[in-house]
Write a structure and sequence with these properties.
- The protein is α+β, with helices and mostly antiparallel strands.
- It has 7 helices and 22 strands.
- The longest helix is centred in the first third of the chain and has 12 residues.
Amino acid sequence: MQEYLEISFHPVGKVSSALAARMQSWREKGYVLEQQYGIKTPWFKMLVPLGDESWRDEIVATVKAKLVTSDWHANFIQDVYSPVDFAHAPLFGIIHTGRDIDFPMGRDDIASVTHIMDVDQSDACAACGAGTRQNCPLRLPASDLNKAGKCASIWIGDNAFFMLTEQLAGELSEECSDELPLLEIETIGKIKLKERWLQIVPEFVVPESAIVERRVKRIECPECGAVRGEALPGPISGVCFTARESALNKVRLPAASLCPVWEGGIERFPDGRIISYPERRLWLRGDLGRALAKKKIRDLELVPIIFA
């Protein structure tokens, strides 16, 4: 795995021969450049190995030479994984940005978890909200699920819900020789569901001793001791993890599990209803993640959690 800083910049007008020569010199230094296409003008994304600070002087000099505009940005930290990383990762995080699932929101202007399910706070910390949980099946329109392919997701604030068709869930269970923790979706509306949909609902939490946080600010609740992770200031990187091999090898991982670190907090409407709550992210065991990757699900990204 290689960490890169993503930098974006716009040429002044068309790419001149002088700028093309500079970009070739950057490639020779190991920088990765990709041309992107905006509404009016093309721009470039450049990936620089994290820790290499010479890029800043290079960009500043290129601006002074009037080859690129002054509105460049160091946007994100991006992890680039090798095929070997993917083949041997013991766990995967999951990101899915497929078709939006629409659902009734009543008179509310923003989506809330309470629009699609009931929330149980009986075991939650009064201070930080850790322990708040879903306590019933998701309630979603069959009309939208019928259009979602084989995999669907809903993101509300810090909460993410991942769903599979019954057929896909069965194929994955067979391929990884393990049952997935699933909860059937409750459908609403007049349209009939074409195929059963199931939400992935793990209960097992990966031991914190088996995980190493990367680029994370740890915040411990003084009331309940729950550890929450926040991304560090600076370029956006998200909350990232690697695994301790000696500790993780002692754990019998189920097909799907939960990250030990909480993310997010309690957000409410003025009337007290919960919009979103702290969550432990879904992780997939390595063999399940690789089996899912072979299904070529549109807009699905599997993020390897490799050994440190």
